[in-house]
């Protein structure tokens, strides 16, 4: 029995020497067993290497194993280890169960165990404790040592509960994967396979306490044990050294194995050192890379001053991570042109989480064969999300979101169009609950705006899907929804459901489809998914099959299982670029290495292992001589070692890249490795790569297209490069179609849209009919009008309370209140405040009940909104009563319905019939004349703007005023327009200092109406009697609480006051009538231009701001031909002057 170490630096032939030595011995000793033990992820590559160097391309008496695989081999020989091995998935499930039962005992863990990922953190710490030989007694010692650290003490006490409960649950039924090696160590001496065998340990950077225990037994049993160790021949390997030294882990390994050999009486043979001659290493062709291996992370190091340039090592900085990977892609393309194979290239990422998907996408796009060594979680996969939605349907009793998530999944039987119709219906009605799904639905309210034909079609689809859902889900619902059932019963019910739904066949169809599209990674994933899902169910049944629980408890444990399940994608080909991380990925025999993501945020990785216990707590335990996984500081040194191993992998060139920016604009710093390289190689400077402007990239397929498009658009004929690319495309028959598409893209211009009069006539069969707001929509953008009122597209209705619903309730309540006054022949000011609030309260309650079938009473939030509505309505009625009492006007009508017709000037043909409701019509009479004003209630901050009126954006009040005049003109009296006003419904917050004496007045002033009042006698005084003139002047410094009117120091009306005269109001009416006719003619002529407006104010408004059709029109002001109609802000005087001029020209 003997032990022998094989030493050498990275790339200096340790593995090569060992493999050839063992192969030679195995050929000469065919009856002797040779066992090569390597890390799990290296077994396949090692087997390939051994077969390759074998004279007969076979390895009959050489066995390549990992520790775990060898354990099972010995168990099958000795009969030991007959308990099932519990993997991480099983541990997670059991911990979820036992910790749920012990929740009340857990002082620290208890409040966190339902957080995503927390059970996994507990599992990791428990595995760490087992791996490092800790048992219940050791945990108790940790607790005693932590007396003065209460938080750590609570954590360890909870961990003790978890550890003990877990052990009790699995006792005599399972062993953990960590305990496997302990059981293996106990039976090594019984194994005939190991007795007299030659054992080789290769590729390890260190060992855990449990592994050292196993090694002790192997060393005592085997004939010979070889151990390869990465070390520097200039440093001692006898003592352990300091943990900050590069080869500390190697020296620790040697120290521990020598100690085991000494304690067991096993001879340690003379050390073997490999790679002393550079020609015997991987660096035979690169002096610079050999220099890097000899000096990286060494103290002191030697600078490389032999050449002015270092051609085999380069550092590059790009803007974003995507740019880094694009740079790598271009470099790989260049290497391939030079005769390189894919397998000669590897990529190592500082953060595979960040770069993995980018590498995968970019390589696939570039047509480069690449394998990204990254396991995928199944929890985020489409099929598992479908299972999640299925269980949520039952747990949450057919909630809308869960039903639609399931029906839109890969397991559903419904089509996309069916799903869309059902989705809209459920969203509009808020239907949920198995009982509701079990009775026929009344679709009248949801489909009230549809034509009869559309209504019948949608109703048929919804009913068919409803029946289909019941047919497919009823059995599962009835078996699992109520009460508690065993895990076995839940799993059986779900498995039966999968069988009925042909779950497996559907996944295979998806896999076939992915294969047809050459997406082999996704095809492989879908082929494994069904087995993975069933494995999770089987694991759950085997662990706790007869335990009863609710469906929610079952789903929680199942979710934890899915969160741990991973799909390992096997490399589909031999010749491919390998991409992975620094510690896990096996890279060998490569010529070119790209280290991407060499940023300080990735290298060093920082403290990613803290988990349940913090870094300071981990340090405390280490100081008290409790051995656990490395601390953050120790991990940095470990990472240096892995970095050294990776950077010394290539034999020809090392590329290092990093990015200087994140997508959010934050700055990225380079990793310390950049400065280390620069110190060793002073002539290696960081190259700033302008990816999109480089000539090399311009000739690549994707970048070439972008370069050509930019050149065509800019028309820069001094740049010959894009013209050469154009000629290449033009001369190629294969690329002619591509060139046509590029030319179309480069000179893209949005077509001006319109429809024929014939189509317009079919859309508007008789004449236009609608509200003023519809025409205002047309004035804002013709295309938006066409979408909403021509094609009758609608936004999705939602069974929820929106801002406009609140407005409708307030409007309805005010209308009810007003009609009660009119019915009783009472004026606003005749009702005292107490009675106001009583009547108003009844009106609000009735309006709330009528709103969407009483939805307002569904939630506490809505109940609070009802209280606020009461307050606002009370304040509004109080203010209106005060305003009405200050003048001569009385309310004549509430919610007055009107129709007004717009006719063509020349033919007198009826073009449009405008319909609407006037919120409030006020008036008074002096005997010979009736004076009328219209008031419109607004819940927003609406103000009358004559500038917007001129552009057609705010015609409502003028049209209302015209309609009220027409209605009153049927009497014999002359009807005079007295004003048009907005009343802004609100509960004002007074920003200025108020006193009890002026509080009421200031409140009324803040609630004053906004608009235009006719200043001709007697209408101004009729609006507010405080505006009566005395010797030709008004009361000085007066602020009206009725409308937006103020006077100056000398009693003159301020320019900002909303006062006009009869002539101006009549001109506004006449102009608006003309505007309505002009717009109507354009609509009927088929004008559907995408022509949104935009104001030129400091805070501009535009038609696109809240438009529901932005995704349809594709308007983009950055594209040629897509221009806003800019509306200049006009003063009231300018508007009246322009309108007067236009009307004069008409006459």
UniProtKB/TrEMBL annotation:
Q: Name one GO molecular function term.
A: exonuclease activity
Q: Does the keyword S-adenosyl-L-methionine apply?
A: no
Q: Which UniProt keywords apply?
A: ATP-binding, DNA damage, DNA repair, DNA-binding, Exonuclease, Helicase, Hydrolase, Nuclease, Nucleotide-binding
Q: Where is the PD-(D/E)XK endonuclease-like domain?
A: 771-1114
The chain positions of domain ATP-dependent helicase/deoxyribonuclease subunit B N-terminal read 5-293
Q: Which residues form the signal peptide?
A: none
An individual GO BP term: DNA recombination
Note the PANTHER family from the entry: RECBCD ENZYME SUBUNIT RECC
Which named protein is this? DNA helicase
Question: What species does this protein belong to?
Answer: Butyribacter intestini
């Amino acid at each position: 029995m003997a032990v022998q170490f094989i030493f050498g630096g990275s790339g200096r032939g340790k593995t090569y020497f060992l493999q050839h030595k063992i192969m030679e011995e195995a050929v000469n000793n065919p009856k002797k067993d040779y066992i090569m033990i390597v890390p799990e992820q290296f077994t396949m590559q090692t087997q390939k290497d051994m077969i390759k160097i074998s004279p007969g391309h076979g390895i009959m008496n050489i066995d390549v194993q990992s520790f775990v695989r060898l354990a099972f081999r010995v168990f099958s020989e000795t009969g030991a280890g007959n308990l099932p091995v519990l993997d991480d998935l099983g541990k997670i499930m059991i911990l979820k169960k036992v910790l749920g039962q012990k929740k009340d005992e857990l002082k620290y863990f208890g409040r966190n165990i339902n957080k995503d990922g927390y059970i996994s953190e507990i599992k990791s710490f428990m595995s760490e404790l087992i791996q490092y030989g800790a048992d219940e007694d050791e945990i108790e010692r940790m607790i005693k040592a932590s007396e003065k650290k209460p938080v750590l003490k609570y954590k360890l006490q909870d961990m003790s509960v978890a550890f003990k409960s877990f052990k009790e649950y699995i006792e005599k039924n399972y062993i953990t994967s960590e305990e496997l090696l302990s059981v293996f160590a106990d039976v090594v001496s019984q194994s005939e396979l190991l007795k007299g065998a030659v054992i080789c340990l290769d590729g390890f950077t260190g060992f855990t306490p449990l592994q050292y225990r196993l090694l002790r037994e192997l060393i005592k049993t085997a004939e010979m044990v070889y151990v390869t160790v990465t070390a520097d021949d200039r440093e001692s390997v006898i003592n352990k050294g300091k943990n900050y030294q590069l080869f500390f882990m190697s020296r620790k390994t040697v120290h521990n194995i020598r100690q085991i050999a000494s304690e067991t009486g096993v001879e340690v043979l003379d050390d073997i050192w490999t790679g002393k001659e550079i020609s015997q290493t991987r660096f035979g062709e690169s002096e610079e890379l050999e220099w890097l291996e000899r000096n990286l992370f060494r103290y002191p190091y030697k600078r490389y001053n032999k050449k002015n340039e270092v051609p085999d090592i380069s550092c590059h900085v790009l803007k974003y991570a995507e740019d880094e990977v694009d740079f790598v892609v271009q470099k790989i393309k260049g290497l391939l042109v030079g005769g390189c194979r894919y397998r000669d290239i590897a990529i190592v990422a500082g953060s595979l989480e960040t770069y993995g998907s980018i590498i995968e996408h970019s390589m696939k796009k570039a047509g480069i064969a690449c394998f990204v060594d990254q396991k995928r979680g199944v929890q985020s996969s489409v099929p598992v999300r479908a299972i999640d939605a299925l269980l949520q349907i039952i747990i949450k009793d057919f909630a809308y979101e869960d039903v639609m998530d399931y029906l839109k999944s890969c397991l559903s039987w419904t089509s996309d169009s069916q799903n869309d119709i059902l989705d809209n219906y459920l969203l509009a009605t808020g239907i949920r609950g198995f009982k509701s799904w079990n009775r026929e639905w009344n679709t009248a309210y949801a489909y009230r705006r549809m034509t009869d034909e559309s209504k019948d079609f949608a109703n048929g689809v919804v009913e068919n899907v409803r029946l289909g859902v019941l047919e497919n889900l009823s059995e599962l619902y009835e078996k699992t929804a109520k009460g508690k059932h065993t895990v076995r019963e839940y799993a059986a019910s779900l498995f039966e459901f999968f069988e009925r739904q042909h779950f497996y066949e559907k996944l295979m169809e998806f896999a076939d489809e992915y294969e047809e599209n050459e997406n082999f990674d996704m095809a492989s994933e879908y082929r494994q998914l069904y087995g993975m899902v069933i494995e999770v169910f089987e694991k759950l049944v085997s662990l706790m099959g007869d335990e009863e629980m609710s469906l929610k408890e079952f789903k929680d444990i199942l979710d934890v299982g899915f969160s741990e399940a991973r799909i390992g994608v096997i490399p589909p080909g031999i010749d491919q670029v390998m991409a992975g991380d620094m510690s896990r990925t096996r890279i060998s025999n490569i010529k070119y290495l790209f280290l991407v993501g060499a940023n300080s945020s990735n290298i060093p990785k920082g403290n990613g292992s803290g988990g349940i216990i913090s870094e300071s707590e981990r340090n405390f335990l280490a100081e008290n001589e409790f051995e656990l996984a490395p601390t953050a500081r120790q991990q940095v040194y470990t990472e240096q070692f892995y970095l050294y191993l990776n950077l010394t992998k290539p034999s020809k060139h090392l590329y290092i890249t990093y990015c200087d920016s994140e997508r959010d604009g934050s700055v990225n710093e380079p990793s310390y490795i950049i400065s280390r390289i620069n110190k060793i190689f002073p002539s290696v400077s960081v190259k700033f790569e302008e990816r999109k402007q480089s000539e090399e990239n311009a000739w690549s397929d994707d970048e070439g297209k972008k370069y050509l498009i930019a050149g065509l658009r800019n028309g820069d004929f001094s740049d010959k490069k894009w013209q050469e690319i154009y000629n290449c495309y033009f001369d190629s028959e294969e690329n002619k179609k591509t060139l046509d598409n590029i030319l179309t893209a480069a000179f893209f211009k949005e077509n001006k849209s319109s429809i024929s009069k014939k189509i317009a006539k079919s859309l508007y069969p008789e004449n236009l009919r609608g509200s003023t707001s519809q025409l205002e929509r047309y004035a804002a953008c013709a295309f938006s009008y066409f979408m909403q009122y021509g094609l009758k597209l609608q936004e999705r209705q939602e069974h929820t309370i929106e801002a406009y619903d609140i407005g409708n309730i307030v409007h309805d309540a005010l209308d009810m209140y007003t009609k009660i006054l009119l019915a009783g022949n009472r004026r606003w000011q005749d009702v005292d405040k107490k009675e106001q609030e009583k009547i108003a309260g009844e009106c609000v309650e009735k309006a709330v009940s009528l709103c969407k079938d009483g939805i307002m009473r569904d939630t506490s939030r809505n109940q609070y909104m009802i209280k606020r509505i009461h307050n606002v309505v009370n304040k509004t009625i109080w203010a209106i009563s005060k305003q009405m009492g200050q003048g001569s006007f009385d309310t004549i009508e509430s919610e007055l319905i009107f129709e007004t017709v717009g006719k063509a000037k020349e033919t007198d043909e009826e073009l449009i019939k405008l319909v609407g409701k006037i919120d409030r019509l006020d008036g008074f009479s002096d005997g010979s004349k009736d004076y009328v004003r219209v008031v419109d209630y607004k819940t927003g901050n609406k103000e009358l703007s004559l500038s917007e009126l001129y552009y057609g954006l705010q015609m409502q009040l003028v049209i209302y005023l015209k309609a009220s005049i027409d209605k009153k003109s049927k009497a014999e009296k002359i009807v005079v327009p007295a004003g048009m006003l907005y009343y802004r419904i609100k509960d004002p917050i007074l920003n200025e200092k108020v006193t009890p004496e002026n509080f009421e007045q200031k409140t009324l002033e803040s609630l004053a109406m906004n608009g235009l009042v006719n200043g001709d006698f007697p209408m101004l005084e009729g609006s507010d009697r405080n505006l009566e003139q005395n010797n030709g002047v008004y009361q000085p410094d007066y602020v009206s609480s009725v409308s937006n009117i103020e006077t100056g120091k000398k009693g003159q009306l301020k320019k900002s006051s909303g006062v006009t005269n009869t002539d101006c109001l009549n001109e506004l009416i006449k102009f608006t009538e003309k505007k309505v006719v002009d717009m109507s003619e354009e609509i009927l002529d088929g004008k559907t231009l995408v022509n949104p407006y935009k104001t030129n104010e400091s805070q501009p408004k535009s038609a696109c701001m809240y438009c529901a059709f932005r995704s349809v029109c594709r308007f983009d002001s950055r594209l040629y031909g897509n221009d806003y109609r800019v509306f200049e802000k006009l003063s009231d005087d300018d508007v009246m002057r322009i309108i007067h001029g236009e009307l004069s020209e008409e006459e």
